[in-house]
Amino acid sequence: QKEVEQNSGPLSVPEGAIASLNCTYSDRGSQSFFWYRQYSGKSPELIMSIYSNGDKEDGRFTAQLNKASQYVSLLIRDSQPSDSATYLCAAANQAGTALIFGKGTTLSVSS
Amino acid sequence: DAGVTQSPTHLIKTRGQHVTLRCSPISGHKSVSWYQQVLGQGPQFIFQYYEKEERGRGNFPDRFSARQFPNYSSELNVNALLLGDSALYLCASSRSPGGEYNEQFFGPGTRLTVL
Fold it and tell me: Does A44 contact B90 at a Cβ distance shorter than 8 Å?
């Protein structure tokens, strides 16, 4: 059973701080990894994708991938109350046809 | 450009009934995937279709079926509904199935309640 593991949280950070979200995956064949943001009652929104070891930055978001450790992370700099949401980590299966999701980490940013 | 669209938004059914959910992908996307999300969990993969062919199937019973039409829209059918089928059903579109750089974009979902 291929799995993606995330801490469910809640992770609470003050406004302006860095939020760090972590994820591990079990399928060594996975090559593509994604972070989705999901607000309560809404559908997941893709915020970052990463395919190679190392860091990928997009605005306030940085995704990090370490395939040897089977570890993916998301850093959110200068956190805002509007960042309060559930963050879902997903790994594509070997064929790339299905995304395997973690249960999500709930982030709360206080003003 | 319009995003992924799904209909209906909400649906209430009783046990044993049948339901059909519909999805239209982003223009230019040829692959559609279906996911089920129950409260407090991440989405769980049900099917992926590309060029009207099933490319992937998750661990769901045969009561779940799907198809894709020549215009790349898709339907998800669920027969003999159970209480446990109550969930948010998500459709995701991508340019093609599989491979790297294959980002999937979700529609707003259909909230199904089975009474």
Answer: yes
